[in-house]
Design goal:
Beta Polymerase, domain 2; alpha+beta; 9 strands; Hydrophobic Seed Protein; two-stranded parallel ribbon
Length: 460
């Protein structure tokens, strides 16, 4: 017997007698596989807005309209794990539920359950059997033509659920690849990020390369895909280990030079960084995974890839700053094995919090690159360098962005310096002096400004 998500009992309690509401698609598929699913899709013959508003009121959720023509709506509810449950409600397409299921992408997603009779699975296309036999099949021959984005989804589902794609389906898929150019950047971007979230994204990306699809995901400029995939695997393994409180100690015992060991003292801090979600709903972890793929590109090539993915300004800045400064740590490390306070200040002054991501990704690149100069000994020293950068940001904020002992008003009134750009420049110079430890109090700050005047660097 299939076990439905517990929250469906709340929806059942809101239904009128004789009302039919069907749970469809991925939630049913994952329930058959005993996997969790936070996105639940429902269809009904009547007006879905009624049940949607009832659910939003019952669970104190947010209600949104998705498609006025089909009265499709969405309810988003915060769950106990600080995540979100998403409920989509829409009207049945066609005359019957079977008509609706036939219009879906793959047979494994064309399965439904009537909430009035949850013990019975409605499966006209034998999707549950395909799940058991590990086959990915479209609901009909025109599925990829009807929506070319399903070409990308086919690869994602095949890798995520370890499904085989039969030859006839591959032929249909190939024939629709060129039509991906008709799909919006935003929809293809969202599919790419879903791919980066699955357990083995490298396998999916290898298939995209095999079918010449990388250009449709703005990844065709990557000069060496295999190197990029190795880097991606190592980065994702590191972030996965960050979620295991014991992984750092375990890796320290088994391999003292492993990434888990190097960042063992900063695991919680880095985990919080990677788990941060931006206004677009994407985590820093998944954006850094994209940067790991694009790491070999120069800034101009990176900007072009970013444009093709229609990312937000915030996301564009993170990626471009990372690519612009990706060599900074290695350049400094070539003649200084421990970052001094001046380098730390200037590094974060230029990169901001993105410096954390670049520090981790720089080490990931060194570990993934067999041609890295110096071998294991150099990698270990570089690991210490990068770890020190992360640790300083976490534990010594006064080295990164110290609070000034003087203000612009102080400079104007204490030293009669006229208002203007020189005030800002002087404050920045003062901030660096504080960051590197040469000025430790207001008295020293005043003396330093006076010395600049005496030396003629500024006019008092």
């Amino acid at each position: 017997m299939i076990t439905l998500p517990q929250v469906t009992s709340v929806i059942q309690s809101l239904m009128k007698p004789g009302e039919h509401l069907y749970l469809v698609g991925g939630a049913v598929r994952d329930a058959l596989l005993s996997k969790p699913n936070q996105d639940l899709d429902f269809v009904c013959a009547g007006d879905p807005r009624i049940i949607g508003r009832k659910l939003a009121d019952k669970l104190s959720g947010a209600f949104y309209m998705l498609d006025e023509e089909r009265n499709a709506c969405r309810v988003i509810v915060k769950n106990e794990q600080d995540g979100f449950l998403v409920f989509d409600f829409s009207q049945v397409r066609g005359q019957t539920l079977n008509d609706d299921l036939l219009e879906r992408d793959f047979t494994i997603n064309a399965i439904a359950i009537d909430l009035n009779n949850p013990s019975e699975i409605i499966d006209p296309l034998n999707g549950s059997q395909d799940l058991v036999e590990k086959w990915l099949r479209p609901c009909k021959e025109t599925s990829f033509i009807d929506d070319p984005l399903r070409v990308i989804r086919a690869i994602r589902y095949a890798v995520k659920y370890s499904l085989d794609i039969e030859p006839s389906t591959i032929d249909l898929l190939k024939s629709a690849i060129d039509n991906l150019s008709l799909i919006s950047k935003e929809r293809k971007r969202d599919e790419l990020f879903k791919i980066l979230e699955i357990e083995k994204p490298a396998s999916a990306l290898e298939l995209f390369a095999q079918y010449n699809m990388l250009e449709h995901l703005s990844l065709s400029a990557i000069p060496n895909l295999q190197n990029a995939l190795v880097r991606l695997k190592i980065f994702l393994e590191l972030t996965k280990n960050l979620n295991d409180e014991n992984s750092g100690e375990a890796s320290k015992e088994s391999n003292p030079s492993s990434l888990g060991s190097i960042f063992s003292e900063n695991m919680r801090f880095l985990r919080e960084r990677f788990d941060q979600v931006n206004l677009s709903g994407r985590s820093i972890r998944i954006l850094d995974a994209l940067i790991a793929l694009l790491w070999d590109l120069n800034e101009v090539e990176g900007e072009k890839a970013v444009e093709g993915l229609a990312l937000s300004r915030e996301e564009q800045e993170l990626i471009c700053i990372s690519l612009r400064h990706k060599c900074w740590i290695l350049d400094q490390f070539s003649f200084q094995k421990v970052p001094d306070r001046q380098f730390v200040y200037r590094y974060y002054h230029s990169l901001g919090i993105a410096g954390l991501d670049v520090a981790v990704l720089t080490l990931v690149e060194a570990v993934s690159n067999p041609s890295f100069d110096g071998g294991e000994a150099q990698r270990s020293e570089l690991g210490t360098f990068c770890q020190k950068l992360v640790e300083t940001f976490e534990r010594n904020p006064e080295y990164v962005y110290p609070k000034l002992y003087l203000t612009g008003r102080d400079l104007m009134f204490e030293f009669d310096i006229p208002q203007g750009p020189r005030i800002g420049q002087l404050l920045e110079e003062l901030r660096e002096q504080q960051a590197i430890g040469l000025i430790e109090n207001r008295t020293q700050a005043l003396a330093w400004v006076d010395s600049q005047i005496q030396k003629g660097f500024i006019k008092g």
